[in-house]
Amino acid sequence: MSKLYGSVEAGGTKFVCAVGDDNFQIVEKVQFPTTTPYETIEKTVDFFKKFEADLAGIAIGSFGPIDIDPNSETYGYITSTPKPNWANVDLVGLMSKDFKIPFYFTTDVNSSAYGETVARPKVKSLVYYTIGTGIGAGAIQNGEFIGGVGHTEAGHTYMALHPSDAANDFYGVCPFHRGCLEGLAAGPSLEARTGIRGELIEQNSDVWDIQAYYIAQAAIQATMLYRPQVIVFGGGVMAQEHMLRRVREKFTALLNDYLPVPDVKDYIVTPAVADNGSATLGNFALAKKITKK
Ligand code: ZN
After folding, report:
1. 172: CA distance to ligand 1 center in Å?
2. What per-residue confidence (pLDDT) applies to 81?
3. Is the domain 4-111+275-291 a CATH 3.40.50.1110 member?
């Protein structure tokens, strides 16, 4: 019987569960809204139970912050999330107790970053950002995630303020930080500045230039800190061609020829995996990796 691998993309608004074969082709995939932990985890377990006889392992990429330190007492927990009911939930413990297979636990953006390296066999070093209602990033060096006592949180680094935001005394909407990337550039910041929901803002609005300025700064940080071969931007905002163009232009201006980087069109890109499938592919590959050990 062929081995199957499980993927859980645990998002703040929805859970995407999938089972894939040895070639990472999807055998079955479901998604449902993230409601209470009990209800959501029960649905997840029920889905994988159908495949239990053939499942070799399951990888979970979760919203966070999460505890990924195997030596920690709260390993596998979602920790300090502001999402109601989900703080201090033992996600891995609750999901794995009914199975006798290995589980792998990481952030949703690490799963996506991993999937993007699977889709780019020549790339060994990559940073993946998602720009949506929140901002997060996963970084990979030689096939391993970058992190130490925990996972990285590149969405919450402090930014140099855009002149327009400085003039308006606008420091973003993050409840934890005054002037971090997520607070200044995630979806809710657009509405905070304009009073209009992001998807309804005209393409020629100046607010896109402000957002692109911060996303370009994130690309500068990734470049300076990690020197990756490629920086991938996922999420709905960056799927708009005009945003990709704006970010590339501002990145080039901010870098100011300080370091050699690949051609910006090959360097600052959108996902290689279609249909938001990066995390699912990454999880299949991570599940396979842990079962080979
Ligand atoms: Zn923040």
Report:
1. 9
2. 85
3. no
